[in-house]
């Protein structure tokens, strides 16, 4: 585990989803730069974005359950990935400006899962301290949602990068006292 300003950054490689090819195809087919179809400010994310939750499309529901279980296992607690997972498709040297997810609805952690990450596709960067992580296919990264992060433009303009990003919060169920 790496610490970013006293908060954890957890990497887990070798994590594969069963429906990976389906997810790649869905994101590449449905991702758009049309701001009327996305809640993400496209002056921050220079990529195509697919947000199935905006139209109640269940494309990411099976993997949301897998990510919820994986984050809970990694953080040794009961966490839930919210339904607002989004797919990102980067190409032609695209990247994302530094930002955080602190102001979005009781999030505790953000996470990224890399479906496709060609060599030279651009590092994931964190701002305090400056850390660069070169993504690999199957890499899953969990970090505090308040930590500033971004994506450097690809150094190889032909490199592709397709990922799913999400936010998670602690799942605090009510305590049930015995009757």
Architecture overview:
- The chain is globular, with a radius of gyration of 16 Å.
- The strands form two sheets. Strands 1, 2, 3, 4, 5, 7, 10 and 12 form an eight-stranded antiparallel β-sheet that branches.
- With 179 residues, the protein is α+β, with helices and mostly antiparallel strands.
- The chain has helices at 20-30, 61-75; strands spanning 2-4, 7-12, 48-50, 79-81, 86-90, 96-99, 109-117, 124-127, 130-133, 140-144, 149-151, 161-170.
- Helices cover 15% and strands 33% of the residues.
- It has two helices and twelve strands; from the N terminus they run ββαβαβββββββββ.
- It has a single domain, classed as Sandwich (Jelly Rolls).
- Strand 1 and strand 2 (7-12) form a beta hairpin.
Quick recap:
By secondary structure, this protein is α+β, with helices and mostly antiparallel strands. The chain has helices at 20-30, 61-75, and strands at 2-4, 7-12, 48-50, 79-81, 86-90, 96-99, 109-117, 124-127, 130-133, 140-144, 149-151, 161-170. Helix content is 15%, strand content 33%.
């Amino acid at each position: 585990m790496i610490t970013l300003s006293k908060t954890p950054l957890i990497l887990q490689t070798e994590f594969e989803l069963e429906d990976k090819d389906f997810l790649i195809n869905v994101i590449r087919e449905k991702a758009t730069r049309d701001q009327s179809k996305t809640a993400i400010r496209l002056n921050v994310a220079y990529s195509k974005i697919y947000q199935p939750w905006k139209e109640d499309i269940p494309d990411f529901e099976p993997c949301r359950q897998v990510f919820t279980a994986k984050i809970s296992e990694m953080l040794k607690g009961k966490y839930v990935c919210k339904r607002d997972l989004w797919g990102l498709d980067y190409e032609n040297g695209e990247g994302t400006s530094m930002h955080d997810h602190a102001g979005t609805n009781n999030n505790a952690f953000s996470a990224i899962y890399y479906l496709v990450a060609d060599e030279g596709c651009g590092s994931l960067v964190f701002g305090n301290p400056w850390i660069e992580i070169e993504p690999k296919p199957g890499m899953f990264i969990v970090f505090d949602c308040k930590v500033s992060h971004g994506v450097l433009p690809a150094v190889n303009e032909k490199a592709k990068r397709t990922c799913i990003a999400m936010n998670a919060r602690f799942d605090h169920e009510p305590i049930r006292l015995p009757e």
